[in-house]
Amino acid sequence: MAKTSKHKGGPTREPGAAKAGAPAHVAAASAPPQTASVRDRQAAGRALAKHTPLKNHAAWRAAQRQHDPIDLLIESSKGRIEHLVPIRYGRMLANPFAFFRGSAAVMAADLSRTPSSGVRVQACGDCHAVNFGGFATPERRIVFDINDFDETSPAPWEWDVKRLVASFVLLGRYRNFSLDDTRECAWRAARAYRKRMARYAEMPILDAWYDSFDLEELLEATGNTALQKKLQKKIKDGTETASHELEFEKLAVRSRPEPRIRDQPPLVYHIDDERGRHFRDDIAESFRRYRESVLPSVATLLERYRLVDIAIKVVGVGSVGTLCAVVLLMSGNGDPLFLQVKEARRSVLEPYAGANPVTHPGERVVRGQRLMQGASDMFLGWLTGAGKGHPNLYVRQLNDVKIKPQIEVAIPSGTKVYARYTGMTLARAHCRSGDPVLLSAYMGDSDAFEDAMADFAASYADQAERDHEAMVAAVRAGRLEIRSEA
């Protein structure tokens, strides 16, 4: 792996490109439309590389900050379900990698102070190593893709890459990888992003748009036969047996007059008082409006199911405390269907990259996911709650043969392969809204891009560790309350 190299494109700044230390919501750099010639778009990319050289992305300086990370955490907890916020903090307190996963708002503020080429794409907003995985497409293929879009919004493309590479350094440190292995994981993610974007720049547009990544190819590339067999069995079970039947056995109990979601407090629970009845009535009423946001064919399919139960479910790290419910539907044939209704809030990117043009946060999430993923859940939709407060919500399948990365057993060789696939996947997601010709010309054909990103990843991982220490101090001082999940 190369450690240093020179970018072949020369170095200047286009009017409006974000400068180091300046907020990223300044006007984006001008760029030719994608209908312009390849030569003109390549020239624009090389021009961007002159005024925002790749080496400028390498540094993170804490002195650039204009905020207290704990203040931002507290701010991001406002409006959440109050008794769940201490669970969120407890999960984040576990280690610096867990803190990083829950602090997308902190990093968004930090990224707004870093150099940017001024080119914007539909960004994920929370692009870290654990927000990728495998799932079944409607055609029952098992693909590898980004799987969390709560924060998606237009923003500088570099922000997703920087969050991704920093996450691999923190993951490597969490798993006690060597310094070289840890750096290489981040470096390979960035390199795969650059190489794949270069490939898309040369491909027919439709070929690039249809590109996807097969999960079994990734598993085979890791060389971990034990893990491969284990996951292949899960894939087989999930595709040969309806995944919702498997979920039913884990999450529900058969009772009269209707099946009921099993309480597993504090992470899955019913609200069995008057407030709970209002909540269930609200979701049931809102659910009718959800059908208006899906394809007509899916709306017809949903007419074959009736809503039988709703329960609160705590998910993720950064999402803990936001409204999230499991909805159990049953068909006349007795087939279960689990959907997840989740609160959508303003993206953490918006204060720094500008307001999303889509005003409904649930619709923002759905539109962003449909744009960035190679194949999206056909049940994706959005709605506005009917009850008090009128929460903005989006809907998706709860689980459809989802395969999550097993970070607790991650080893260097497998993580390097995984990092490469995340980089390629992110490039595919970005090229759907961005210009791969321009971005590829900007990154060039040397190792300078991945060298800069690996340097940034190490520096920012140090910052995340300091922020985690600040959180520990805040808990000890009584500024933050944590709660056990036992």
Please describe the structure with a list of short key phrases separated by commas or semicolons.
single chain, 486 residues, alpha+beta, 6-stranded antiparallel sheet, two-stranded antiparallel ribbon, 18 helices, 12 strands, globular, DUF2252, DUF2252 domain-containing protein
N-to-C order of helices and strands: HHHHHEEEEHHHHHHEEEHHEEEHHEEHHH
Summarize model confidence as the mean pLDDT. Answer: 87
Helices and strands: which structural class? alpha+beta
* Uncertain regions spanning at least 5 consecutive residues: 2-28
Shape: globular
Estimated share of beta-strand residues: 5-15%
Helix content: 40-55%
Number of helices, where a helix is a run of at least 4 consecutive DSSP H or I residues: 18
Largest sheet: 6 strands, antiparallel
> What would you report as the Rg, rounded to the nearest angstrom?
22 Å
- Per DSSP E runs of 2 or more residues, the count of β-strands stands at 12
Strand order of the largest sheet: 7-8-9-10-12-11
Euclidean distance between termini CA atoms: 44 Å
